[in-house]
Amino acid sequence: MKVRHSPLLVVVMSLIPILSSFQPLACGSLQAPDTTGKQIEVRLIPKKKSVKAGRILEARVEIWNVGSKPLFIEHNVYNVCIPSPLSLRLDLGPPLKPQTGPGAGCAGDCVYTAKDSFVTRLLSRWTILPPGDFYGTVISIYPESFPQLYTPGRWRLGGTYKSIGDLSSSHCWDTAPIRDNEEQIKALPYEA
Is residue 13 in some structural domain? Predict the structure, then answer.
């Protein structure tokens, strides 16, 4: 027995995997979201639905405090050059075109000196996020770091936000460590 499919059915069936990969930017719900055990929620929203191949992709990042207590979060949400809590990826696209030319590279440094107090160090890297509020920024995703942006096609932007909450850790070189740093961190009213 030979089965014939209508051309319209074939097109609709082939679009289902593509359409299911798109998530709405905002959706309403009559029920409160399940935030049991969650302290933050991270939203990653491209500024445009599409960009030309080889161009910079800009995305808005929102970090929402969905918990019941204020907490510290890092100012520097995303940075290619230094460790930051957000890592990005582009998934589900076509095979990549071979790349020619230079790639990406960067360097960054900072130094803590004796004049940098505990408060100065804390506030230069962390901010307080009250419950129900968000901290947001716009990030630029460069094709030199993400060669997928050189290849035309549909890509899904995703990411992982991971912070160990160590208020004492820093990528800065510390020429004058603070002796009672751990005690001062324990005395803070909020967690990171």
Answer: no
Angle at 132 between CA 127 and CA 138, to 5 degrees: 55
Q: How many helices (H) and strands (E) does the chain have?
A: 3, 9
C-alpha–C-alpha distance, residues 158 and 156, integer Å: 6
47 within 8 A of 60, measured Cβ to Cβ: yes
Element housing 185 (H / E) = helix 181-186
Compute mean pLDDT per 10 residues along the chain, 192 residues long, and list them.
46 39 36 62 92 93 95 88 86 72 69 86 89 95 89 89 82 83 87 84
> In this structure, what CATH number is given to the domain that contains residue 163?
2.60.40
Return the sign of the alpha-carbon dihedral for residues 114, 119, 123, 126: positive
Give the range of the structural domain holding residue 61, as residue numbers without chain letter: 37-93+106-186
**Which residues, 6+ apart, have CB-to-CB distance to 110 below 8 Å?**
170, 171, 172, 173
Residue 152, in any domain of the structure: yes
Cβ distance 65 to 71 under 8 Å?
A: yes
